[in-house]
């Protein structure tokens, strides 16, 4: 039975291998400190945090996230450790919340490895605090207990660490926040918020989700599309620019005032003992587009958690085998005759049995997800579909902006046969950095540097083409800076179709001109918003959203141009100006730490498969597959031709 703790209450722990699960309404930093019998933390080596996530018997998440799983093995802790204190803090990121009173109350659960809850604690009553001691596990008379603490600190992480006696608390807090900031550039965009009772419909008799219940699903914040993901700060919505001197409309064009309806029953219930029949659009939402969006994110979450359960079970099997072998070999009698060999064989057999059962469970989940993907993929609209999807053969330029955009696919090593579309919300919350350098992935290691640069620019063109294709006519403009003209071959489809706002800019003069024009647009729109004078915007200002593709950065850029790029990355998305960098991160490091904020503010993707993206729950390293058109296909040229025709006529 689960113990629901209140502040100050304790509860005996029935086992020593545990998970501590954290759920919050916004990304938080999770860490833990180890203390002696007096609660003293004897140095930074007694602290697990995103910059140093592993200690003997303890592992925490490597990045800020709305959900965390901390692994604890109390038996593996050093004998001097008598207390494990779980810490939560808000990351210092631009636009994020600065106090816990402004977000939903964090929820912490201590569970067994099977996910069964032992004790839970909701941290209520927080206000100005930006860091909080959530709970502590402590040893008393040979037994371990958990105590709900809920002590907040308005002065943040540094004050909390200093309160535990940590020397150099301010410097350590700063290094932790820097490690979190570095992780922002490699995190997958979070899914929409969950419905209180799991809005996704599972047909009767179907298999449960990896956590034993129905798939959590999205519920809109006052209606329509989900503008405020629970795992990230509020997404800035670019204002609709006036077309003829009219006022700027700040409302999301698809926002409603009530909750979305559940999906209609389009498939018969599954028979007992048989898996549910997959159905496209099997999620809540106002439209099929929104239902498919929610369903894709639900599949992503199911795959993340099914894999986490499998990995946890395998780790448990290995740990159990090690413990049994240690007990056996510690007895001198087992070393006589064949007793030791038999014990080792039995321990390995148990390990193999547990791992095999875990793999069977994972294979069942993967089979169900593969069947669901086979149904969902053909039903996706163009904005969500791969370039090989037949939907592009009947493509027509839309009259409304879609909810989201597909920028690639994701899969895990255990599930190479199941890929999940990577969708990002529109309007874009942040720009992209397409890394054209050599990464640690096998695909990058087998690809030459020149070819990587060509593939990176090809990826940029595919991303830009899709954005042009899913926006209504003349509501999205693309600019290109190509200082040395090295991207001419990749840019040929965009240039040939005539869909660029102007020819690719080259040389110092071209770079300066494009950056000046876009920074002027950001300045003017921001001033209009602050003054409430949208009708005063000049007539030559392009009301469409803007995308700037920058190739071969930092070549051809002086300090002023770099400053303008940083300004566009920080301020541009809120007023409809987005940045897409195509550059080698190592080359860009020549500018030193001045570019770190720019690097962290953009979503890093790669032109070849690479496992650098992390999910918001358990931090899996997901393999990102960039978009690609089928070999020999002219789908890109055909789509751009229709976009160009629609731009000329102003309609589909």
Chart the SSEs and their pairings.
Blueprint: E1 3-5, E2 10-12, E3 17-35, E4 47-48, E5 54-55, E6 58-59, E7 65-73, E8 83-89, E9 107-111, E10 117-122, E11 131-140, E12 143-153, H1 156-163, H2 169-184, H3 288-329, H4 339-379, E13 404-411, E14 420-425, E15 432-435, H5 442-445, H6 449-470, E16 476-481, H7 488-497, H8 507-531, E17 545-553, H9 559-571, E18 577-583, H10 585-588, H11 596-601, E19 603-605, E20 610-614, E21 621-625, H12 635-649
Parallel strand pairs: 1-10, 15-18, 15-19, 16-17, 17-18
Antiparallel strand pairs: 2-12, 3-4, 3-7, 3-8, 3-9, 5-6, 6-7, 8-11, 9-10, 11-12, 13-14, 13-21, 20-21
Helix pairs in contact: 1-2, 3-4, 6-7, 6-12, 8-9
Q: Averaged pLDDT, please?
A: 82
Which regions contain 5 or more consecutive residues with pLDDT less than 50? 194-257
Q: Please tally the β strands and state the result.
A: 21
How far apart are the termini? 60 Å
Instruction: Classify the secondary structure makeup into a structural class.
Output: alpha+beta
The largest sheet is: 12 strands, mixed
Number of helical stretches of at least 4 residues: 12
Oligomeric state of the chains in view: single chain
Hey, roughly how much beta strand do the residues contain? Answer: 15-25%
Shape: globular
- The percent of residues in helical segments reads 25-40%
What is the radius of gyration? 27 Å
């Amino acid at each position: 039975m689960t113990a629901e703790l209140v502040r100050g209450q304790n509860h005996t722990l029935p086992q020593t291998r545990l998970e501590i699960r954290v759920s919050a309404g916004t990304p938080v930093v999770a860490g833990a400190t180890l203390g002696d019998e007096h609660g003293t933390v004897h140095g930074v080596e007694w602290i697990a945090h995103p910059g140093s996530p592993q200690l003997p018997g303890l592992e925490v998440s490597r990045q800020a996230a709305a959900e965390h799983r901390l692994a604890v093995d109390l038996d593996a802790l050093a004998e001097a450790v008598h207390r494990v204190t779980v810490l939560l803090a808000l990351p210092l990121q631009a636009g994020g919340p600065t106090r816990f009173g402004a977000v939903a109350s964090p929820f912490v659960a201590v569970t067994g490895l099977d996910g069964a809850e032992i004790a839970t604690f909701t941290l209520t009553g927080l206000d100005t605090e930006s860091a909080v001691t959530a709970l502590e596990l402590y040893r008393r008379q040979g037994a371990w207990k958990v105590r709900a603490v809920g002590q907040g600190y308005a002065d943040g992480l540094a004050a909390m660490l200093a309160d535990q006696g940590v020397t150099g608390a301010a410097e350590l807090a700063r290094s932790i926040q820097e490690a979190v900031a570095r992780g922002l550039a490699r995190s997958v965009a979070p899914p929409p918020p969950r419905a209180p009772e799991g809005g996704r419909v599972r047909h009767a008799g179907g298999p449960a989700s990896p956590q034993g219940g129905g798939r959590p699903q999205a519920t809109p914040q006052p209606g329509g599309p989900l503008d405020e993901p629970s795992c990230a700060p509020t997404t800035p919505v670019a204002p609709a620019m006036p077309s003829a001197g009219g006022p700027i409309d700040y409302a999301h064009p698809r926002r409603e005032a009530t909750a979305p309806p559940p999906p209609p029953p389009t498939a018969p219930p599954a028979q007992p003992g048989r898996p549910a029949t997959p159905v496209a659009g099997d999620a809540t939402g106002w439209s099929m587009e929104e239902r498919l969006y929610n369903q894709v994110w639900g599949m992503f979450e199911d795959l993340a958690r099914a894999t986490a359960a499998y990995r946890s079970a395998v780790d448990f099997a290995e740990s159990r085998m090690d413990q049994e072998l240690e007990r056996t070999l510690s007895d001198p009698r087992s070393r006589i005759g064949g007793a030791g060999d038999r014990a080792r064989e039995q321990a390995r057999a148990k390990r193999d049995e547990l791992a095999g059962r875990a793999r069977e469970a994972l294979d069942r989940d993967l089979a169900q997800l593969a069947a669901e993907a086979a149904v969902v993929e053909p039903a996706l609209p163009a904005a969500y579909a791969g370039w090989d999807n037949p939907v592009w053969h009947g493509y027509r330029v839309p009259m409304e902006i879609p909810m989201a955009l597909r920028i690639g696919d994701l899969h895990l090593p255990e599930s190479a046969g199941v890929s999940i579309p990577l969708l990002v919300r529109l309007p874009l919350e942040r720009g992209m950095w397409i890394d054209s350098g050599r990464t640690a992935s096998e695909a990058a290691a087998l690809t030459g540097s020149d070819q990587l640069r060509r593939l990176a620019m090809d990826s940029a063109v595919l991303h830009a083409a899709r954005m042009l294709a899913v926006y209504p006519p003349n509501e999205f403009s693309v600019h290109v800076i190509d200082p040395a003209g090295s991207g001419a071959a990749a840019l040929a489809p965009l240039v040939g179709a005539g869909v660029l706002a102007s020819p690719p800019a080259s040389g110092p003069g071209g770079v300066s001109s494009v950056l000046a024009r876009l920074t002027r647009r950001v300045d003017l729109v921001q001033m209009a918003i602050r003054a409430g004078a949208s009708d005063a915007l000049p007539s030559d200002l392009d009301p469409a959203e803007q995308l700037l593709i920058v190739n071969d950065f930092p070549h051809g850029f002086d300090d002023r141009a770099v400053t303008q790029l940083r300004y566009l990355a920080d301020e541009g998305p809120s007023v409809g100006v987005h940045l897409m960098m195509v550059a080698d991160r190592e080359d860009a490091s020549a500018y030193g730490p001045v570019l770190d904020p720019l690097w962290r503010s953009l979503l890093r993707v790669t032109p070849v498969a690479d496992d650098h993206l992390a999910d918001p729950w358990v931090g899996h390293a997901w393999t990102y597959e960039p978009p690609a058109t089928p070999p020999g296909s002219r789908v890109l040229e055909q789509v751009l031709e229709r976009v160009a025709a629609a731009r000329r006529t102003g309609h589909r």
